[in-house]
Amino acid sequence: MAIMTRDFNSVDLSDPKAAALAVKRKALELGADAVGIGNIERWANSPLQMDPRQIMPECKSIIGMVFRVERGSLRGVEEGTYFSNYSAMGYGGITYLYMPMTVINLSKFIEDQGYEAIPMGHQSDWRAISNNGALKKNFSRPVRPGQAHPDIMVHLRIAAYLCGLGEIGFSKMFLSPQFGPRCRVGIILTDVELEPDPIYDGPQLCNRCMACVKACPGQCFDPEKTVKVDLAGHEVEWADIDIDKCGIAFTGTKYTGVVQDDPYLQGNPNDTVPAEWSPFRHKPVSLYKTGQAVCGARGCTRACMISLENRGVLQNKFKDKFRRRPVWSVDWSTPDEAVTDIKFAEEKKNEAD
Q: Is residue 73 part of a domain?
């Protein structure tokens, strides 16, 4: 019996319109929740370290894909009872497992037809710039004069915008008309010429309600301080989020200015304690390396999603509203008296001894 392999050159991608349709259908078949296409000319004014042409000089098209964060993965954080699910399933599982499988297999479909494709997602640990856009000192150097420092990292939220998939909200979160802020974004760079989609011009998603600002536990947004950029001839504005404060609040950390005997961030002595939006005495371990969203995206995702759902502008509608009970907080100044009918691990160990 002869070996079996994939079919090569079985789909004609020479016509941009037909090729775009074939690629979109395949993307949805492989697991993307929405897919759009932007022509490379829309990246004409990209900063050098975010310019996809630095990665693929012959790039003609960028395929953007939205991967939904399940509303249910936020349920346990909303109730204050099951935090790991959002970091594992709504964050790490999509970023490190589900999305790579989809963008890799769609890239294989394109390469089977004789064109090159580069699958990309949120994996950016090697990028040459920090979260604030500055080059990391002594991290890397260009291999040729005039080229970017490795590694390039295409701005995924901007890519989704330029592929026509939605808006960038005031919170800097990407908002899709299907799911609002419940999105992860994957892209593919390719030398196939694909018919581009128009920049999103549907129902307004972000109406500057400032729910994200009010609900952010770390108060990471300054409503008076914004960033404005030109994206393919469209002026787009978002809050100049304090990345450092966000990174602290994200993990449920609060700094006190007084070194703690038993700090929230374990390891070296420091002045951290659990914030009122963390139910954990110590910061839990990361899941999939980066999943440690103890704050559960309280402002930028949950508050924004609630606002969008209340306005009825999202396509993915639900039978019941998301917030069904009062917002919780933990009072760490009082003893833990919530559970009285179980024994803790230390007590069971003492009994066994």
A: yes
Supply the range of the domain harboring residue 130. 20-138+147-311
Report d(CA 245, CA 28) in Å as an integer.
37
Residue 163 · residue 190 · CB < 8 Å: no
307 pLDDT above the threshold of 80: yes
Q: Are 165 and 202 in contact (CB under 8 A)?
A: no
User: What pTM was estimated for this model as a whole?
Assistant: 0.94
Is 4 domain-assigned?
no
pLDDT at 341: 64
In the predicted model, is pLDDT for residue 347 greater than 80? Answer: no
| Helix 99-112 / helix 16-30 crossing angle, nearest 10 deg | 140
In a domain, 329, yes or no: no
User: In total, how many domains does the chain have?
Assistant: 1
Residue 185: the pLDDT is 98
Tally of residues, the chain: 353
d(CA 197, CA 27) in angstroms, rounded, equals 15
* Both tokens assigned to 113: 């037809």
Is there a domain that residue 12 lies in? no
Return the HEC string of the chain: CCCCCCCCCCCCCCCHHHHHHHHHHHHHHHCCCEEEEEEHHHHCCCCHHHCHHHHCCCCCEEEEEEEECCHHHHHHHHHCCCCHHHHHHHHHHHHHHHHHHHHHHHHHHHHHCCCCEEEECCCCCCCCECCCCCECCCCCCCCCCCCCCCCCCCCHHHHHHHCCCCEECCCCCEEECCCECCEEEEEEEECCCCCCCCCCCCCCCCCCCCHHHHHCCCCCCCCCCEEEEEECCEEEEEECCCHHHHHHHHCCEEECCCCCCCCCCCCCCCCEEECCCCCCCCCCCCECCCECCCCCCHHHHHHHHHHHHHHCCCCCCCCCCCCCCCCCCCCCCCCCCCCCCCCCHHHHHHHHC
Distant-in-sequence contacts of 237-242, Cβ < 8 A, 24+ apart: 237/170, 238/168, 238/169, 238/170, 238/171, 238/172, 239/170, 239/171, 239/172, 239/212, 239/213, 241/171, 241/172, 242/218
